[in-house]
Task: inverse folding
């Protein structure tokens, strides 16, 4: 930790003479971060280090993402993510949660330690953080199992536009897990997920249309078109959510 601080301060001093009044925007920092990762550009990396040394949370997060891929610097990545998250960077909180939950060579998986960071990001309206924490709570992964809390988190993620959460909510309302059973709301969430082009939802809606039920009119032609749409998304490696 001390070594990382010393390096960041040295980089800030080194580059300070070249850009004493420069305060980059978040977008500019992220462009430099992408350049450092994709092109292994040492100049871009030095810029990130200098900005991180100036306590810019986005720069700390981008430098942490760069360090994630380097086994010898993963501890530094954790520290940088934590600094950025505490300074208000929502994506850093989510990325720290991911790193702790999934683990990596040299970093043991620790779902319980990841949960508070996901919670912090979810409180700041990060859809994927709410989704991931909702799944952890639903399954009791590192946190106590709590169906009602899981449903609340998944509802938050769904309302923020996450199609995976919408699909999960359709299942929760159909089964009455953590919420009162409500077939109408279940079907509404399923349709919403399908409209967001989530393949499992499209496929399930198509299967419903093949036979029809109390909520959906039978439409074999429409079902065939939906099945083709779902297959197309899968072929295109659709994984945005």
Result:
């Amino acid at each position: 930790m001390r070594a990382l601080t010393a390096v960041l301060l040295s980089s800030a001093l080194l580059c300070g003479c070249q850009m004493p009044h420069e305060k980059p925007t978040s977008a500019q920092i992220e462009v430099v971060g992408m350049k450092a990762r994709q092109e292994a550009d040492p100049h871009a990396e030095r810029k990130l280090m200098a900005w991180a040394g100036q306590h810019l949370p986005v720069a700390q997060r981008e430098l942490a993402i760069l360090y994630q891929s380097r086994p010898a610097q993963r501890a530094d990545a954790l520290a940088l993510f934590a600094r950025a998250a505490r300074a208000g960077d929502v994506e850093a909180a989510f990325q720290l949660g991911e790193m702790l939950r999934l683990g990596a060579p040299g970093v043991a998986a620790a779902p319980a330690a990841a949960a508070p960071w996901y919670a912090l990001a979810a409180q700041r309206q990060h859809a994927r953080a709410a989704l991931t924490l909702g799944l952890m709570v639903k399954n009791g992964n590192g946190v106590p199992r709590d169906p009602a809390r899981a449903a609340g988190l998944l509802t938050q993620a769904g309302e923020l536009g996450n199609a995976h959460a919408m699909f999960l909510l359709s299942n929760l309302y159909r089964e009455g897990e953590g919420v009162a059973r409500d077939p109408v709301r279940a079907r509404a969430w399923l349709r919403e997920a399908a409209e967001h082009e989530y393949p499992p939802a499209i496929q399930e809606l198509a299967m419903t249309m093949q036979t029809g039920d109390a909520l959906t009119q039978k439409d074999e032609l429409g079902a065939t078109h939906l099945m083709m749409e779902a297959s197309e998304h899968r072929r295109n490696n659709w994984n945005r959510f």
User: Anything to note?
Assistant: Residues 125-241 form a domain with the Serine Threonine Protein Phosphatase 5, Tetratricopeptide repeat fold (CATH 1.25.40.10). The chain has 13 helices and no strands. The chain has two domains: 1-113, 125-241.
